[in-house]
Amino acid sequence: MKRIKNKIEGVRPFNLFTLRSCYYYQTVAGLASFGIPYENILMGYLSFPQKNFQIEKKSFSDKEMGKIWGYKSKACNLSLRGFLRNIDKHNPVIAGIDCFYVESRPEAYRKKHSPHWILVHGYDLDIGIFDVVEQDYSNSYKYTEKTISISNLLYGNIMYRRPPIGRKKACRVLIKKRIKGNGIKKILERIGRGSFEQAQKASEANLETLKTLILQQNASIQEKSPEITAYLKEMKYSFSIIKKIEIFTDTPEKAARISFIVAAYSNLLSVFWKMENKKDYGFAFRYKDNIIKKIDDLLIAEYVTYNDISEGCKCWLKQ
What we know:
CATH superfamily of the largest domain: Cysteine proteinases
CATH topology of the largest domain: Cathepsin B, Chain A
Largest sheet: 7 strands, antiparallel
Structural class: alpha+beta
Radius of gyration: 22 Å
Mean pLDDT: 93
CATH architecture of the largest domain: Alpha-Beta Complex
Number of strands: 9
Shape: globular
């Protein structure tokens, strides 16, 4: 007998901190229905500092993460029948849409073309709606479970493949597979213990350079401000991920130290945002004593944390 309604249980919207894009939010939320903890996926999104305020992103592809954690992300195009069939098989669907055509996106609806991803995990044909994970409201970073018109989402999904967005595949179907081996060990082997040791040295060099720029009170800090701001943002992001990974925060002391590091990068970011917004690049020099003290405290905290992580990796890699 044909189903009129169905819903995949176990989907969990992710709201612990800001991820890179809506696609990552929807991937983490959908994989929760397979029993895959968010921290397992976040381990594949780490960034590592390089000298001269550069960043190396060691992001794993969907294919790589799927092999490690036991799932497949299948790129395809789906009709209504395809959406229903996958939901019935417990396969959440991450659907691309052009927000210009979707009524639930008022900031873009009939105003501008904008690509976006929505997680579809249920349906009710009687009233014509999909169960989805979507932003609480437009431009919000909070994701929640909502409903959306089936016809409207399908139209937005079709138009995702038309110009100006013009993507060939408009859906990613998440399919559960069998996990083979120790996923954490596999990720750490790919990242490499040495990456954390090199990251500590690069971060130390960058923070010492930042201190010098602040104390010099010259045009260099203005010239490098966009680059430094982007770097600080990535460092805050990466430590926000580390903060949520249990193997890196297995004691209260480690967790508190990483929380301090995240807060310290937030404080430094606020300094640079304030300078850029007000075009006042002497601000850092006027408050140099306080800022230098925060950087020195950050250097100490990072040194200990990177050593803890390196030792933790060593233990896991021996298993």
